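From the shared-data thread, chain only:
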Amino acid sequence: MAAAATLVLAACSSSGGSSSGSGSASARASASSAASASARPTPVLTVCQEVNSVRHALSSIVATSIGQAPISEIQAVTRAMQTALTDLSNTVSGQTEWSSQIAALKTQLDRLQSAASSDASAPPSNGGRSTVAAAKASVVAATGRLLSAIGNRCPASTPSPVPSSS
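Structure, as tokens:
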């Protein structure tokens, strides 16, 4: 987005201050075409779509009852969140904004996936679900910090209540 704005700004400033004339119009058109070709379709829209995917994945994690859901379901919602976060990370790659929150959430997702895998291979009386529940709570908290950092840049498309975590 910044690259596209820079190209358009450069084209406008290279017109010599004249707002009329074919040279000025063609410079703007050519810069606009170059910006469109080199930029993602709608970067802000793309980022917000990725943020909405993260929100949706968070809703799935929150709705998953650690005490009642099979481990395979916990692993599936964790993988969905990892995919959504990877897509967001790739979309904003090269930018430092949100990088610490994204990295922290990736760490917590890895922790949740590891806890779920350990629980799947542990005897039922092991108490591993408490480890999974703690890891889930950490994922929810880390996601909340990421969404807070994003703030109003990508508001939720529809307000939805967040179910209580279990």
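The two ends are 40 Å apart (CA to CA).
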